[in-house]
Amino acid sequence: MSERTFRLMQYHQKLDEELRTELRSSWPSFARIQRLKRMKLAVKDKLHVLLAKRRNAPKPA
Prior knowledge:
Helix content: over 70%
Low-confidence stretches: none
Shape: elongated
Radius of gyration: 15 Å
Distance between the termini: 19 Å
Strand content: under 5%
Number of strands: 0
Number of helices: 2
Oligomer: single chain
Mean pLDDT: 93
């Protein structure tokens, strides 16, 4: 796993924690919830692109 992939996974987890915290709040901000969801999806998309590139990269002999 590359350093970038690891960092993106950490960031994705952090966003997920923030999202869960906001959802449990007594007065959740729906604008913040939407922003966190969009950011989380963007990170997930970047991870998929990185992992697809690694999967399709030629293996060293």
